[in-house]
Write a structure and sequence with these properties.
Blueprint: H1 43-59, H2 70-73, H3 85-89, E1 120-124, E2 127-131, H4 167-170, H5 176-181, H6 195-204, H7 208-214, E3 226-227, E4 232-233, H8 234-250, H9 261-269, H10 277-286, E5 316-317, H11 338-341, E6 350-351, H12 379-388, H13 394-399, E7 402-403, H14 410-416, E8 418-419, H15 441-451
Parallel strand pairs: 7-8
Antiparallel strand pairs: 1-2, 3-4, 5-6
């Protein structure tokens, strides 16, 4: 594959729309019996049970030792990111099920992640770049044929062996979210459990009946026997079906509720008139002088009233984030997109996160961490960085901001009124896009106020024990 150069586009805004949400219709159909396939299947019930199964698994502590679940790193009350305020303040990366281990990046939000597209090349020569995929570096590609060797394993049509009739309603879950769900369980610094043991855990759970219903009468099989026609073992197929159940729940309206203040105001009459004057100013700056919408929109030309806006261009950028000296493994450099593609020109580029739930937290005093390494601890400091990080520029001069050494924390930098050098300095956007925006203190605060309207008002709770 030829080497692609990532270019941060200036002037004309080019962006790629995220794949639209596909809502499952309530289909009720008997499926003709195929060889080895069950019959009389209620497809609508199967889909609902698959989501329910995924929810139970998401909240279940399936790890070694038994202390970590998916929700441990993706807490709905914390905007689907890490739910430990103290760790967000310092270590940032989650401690694994094995308490002597930890990751190396901040857990990204998993809400709205199902709306991202497969990893792919976007744009047109000479302005080609990468977009899509899950994880900060996009390695959960969702592609049957990986674009790069650094991609994770992929769940393909083998998951429908012997239950072919279910492909009609389940194949929409094949993609980056299902591929991503394969990874945390066997990861030594996350849930630390072999996939066959994951299968056995689910098989022994009270909610195992949901698996059988969701897969058309196929009970979960954790054996080493070959299953289907593609050379997979039974437990491998069962594990892939578990991953698909997680993806189904993550694609549900319960996770992607579009229930923020901004959404509720917009739903009344199609306008944002219900926002406060400060929030409206933040909106105007977001889509105007602050240039936030250059990267944080999924539809070029959007004016802020798109009903299902995801606030991400689905692409990869380097905003000049400082290295975090408190994150485990420091000073090992986080390669960003290069860690997936192997292309040196992609070093330091990180997936643009959705801004939905960017300020959602269980209590007002809760500390959230921002950017891939969690160097920023507040929206206020992050917006201030966007405004003033071009040292020597007019805005930095106006605020008296100077250059720090590396290896300083956000607290130290703010106390000294300085910004550290970026961890990587390639493809940082031009100052008028980032770093020299000319915003006042009041305008920075208005953008923060607008961002806070993106927090969903609905917060899913753990399911009741299955009976």
């Amino acid at each position: 594959m030829s080497t692609h150069i990532h270019v941060f586009l200036t002037g004309t805004l080019l962006s790629v729309s995220l794949s639209s949400s596909m809502q499952c219709e309530h289909l009720e159909s008997d499926v003709d019996r195929e060889e080895g396939a069950p019959i009389g299947r209620d497809l609508a019930q199967s889909t609902q049970k698959l989501e329910e199964l995924g929810k139970h698994i998401f909240f279940d502590k399936i790890s070694v030792p038994k202390r970590m679940a998916c929700v441990s790193c993706h807490d709905p009350a914390a905007g689907w990111t890490f739910g430990n305020s103290n760790i967000n303040l310092h270590q940032v990366a989650a401690t694994g099920a094995d308490p002597h281990t930890a990751g190396s990046v901040k857990p990204p939000t998993n809400a709205y992640a199902s709306k991202t597209g497969n990893f792919r090349t976007c744009g047109a020569p000479p302005f080609q770049f990468f977009c899509g995929g899950n994880f900060w570096n996009g390695r959960a590609e969702g592609n049957a044929s990986p674009a790069f060797p650094g991609a994770t394993a992929h769940v393909g049509d083998e998951v429908f062996d012997n239950v072919e009739g279910l492909k009609l309603v389940y194949e929409k879950y094949l993609g980056p979210v299902t591929d991503q769900a394969l990874n945390p369980f066997p990861n030594k610094v996350e849930q630390n459990i072999e996939i066959q043991q994951v299968c056995k855990h689910v098989a022994s759970a009270k909610y195992a009946e949901l698996f059988t219903i969701a897969w058309g009468g196929e009970a979960i099989d954790c054996s080493d026997q070959l299953y289907g026609s593609k050379g997979f073992k039974a437990y491998e197929i069962s594990f892939e079906r578990i991953a698909m159940a997680l993806a189904a729940w993550q694609d549900s309206k319960e996770v992607n509720s579009f229930s923020s203040k901004r959404d509720l105001v917009l739903a009344k009459d199609g306008t944002l008139d219900g926002l406060t004057d400060q929030e409206k100013l933040g909106h105007d700056l977001f889509y105007g002088r602050a240039n936030c919408a250059v990267c944080h929109t999924d539809s070029p030309g959007d004016d802020g009233t798109e009903q299902f806006q995801l606030y991400s261009d689905d692409a990869y950028h380097n905003i000049g984030t400082p290295a975090n000296p408190e994150i485990p493994g420091y000073p090992d450099l986080n390669l960003g997109l290069e860690g997936h593609t192997g292309l040196e020109g992609n070093r330091g580029l990180q997936k643009t996160p959705t801004l939905r739930n960017v300020d959602k937290r269980p209590v007002k005093s809760f500390v959230k961490a921002y950017t891939h390494d969690g160097w920023f601890k507040s929206l206020e400091s992050l917006v201030h960085f966007y405004n003033t990080s071009a040292i020597g520029g007019a805005t930095a001069e106006q605020f008296g901001v100077t250059q720090c050494d590396k290896d300083v924390t956000e607290k130290q930098a703010l106390a000294a009124n300085c910004w550290p050098m970026p961890e990587h300095d390639n493809f940082i956007p031009k100052p008028f896009l980032l770093g020299d925006l000319g915003l006042t203190v009041e305008e920075e605060a208005a953008i923060v106020a607008y961002l806070k309207t993106f927090s969903d008002t609905q917060t899913p709770k753990a399911p009741k024990p299955y009976k």
